[in-house]
Amino acid sequence: MDRQRMPSSRDVPSYRPWDRRFPFWEAINKIEKGDGGKLFPLLSNFVKMILTLPHSSAATERLFSAINLNKTKTRNRLETDTLTGILNAKNILSNQNKSCYNFNIDTEMLNKHNNQMYK
Fold this sequence. Notes:
Elements: H1 21-30, H2 41-51, H3 58-70, H4 80-95, H5 107-112
Helix pairs in contact: 1-2
């Protein structure tokens, strides 16, 4: 009869709070029993699923807020593609700390603006 080996401290990687948690749980998932089977397969998969959940819905709420600021009563016929373009343009300007007044337009960008972009 095969004796199952209990994991020792050398099987578990050192964990520091600033490390990412997935490599830790992947290492836990790789610990094997004496018969070659995984020791904690369900636990590590469960933890991976839990750690991928968003901790809040703030990003979604910000997106809906931005949509509501742009799609108003007077702009209620905006197509989804148009609204997406407006939000992307605002996001790019915001990330570059620029506004529409100080945004540099290069020749490559100008060349892309032709009648082909509307087809």
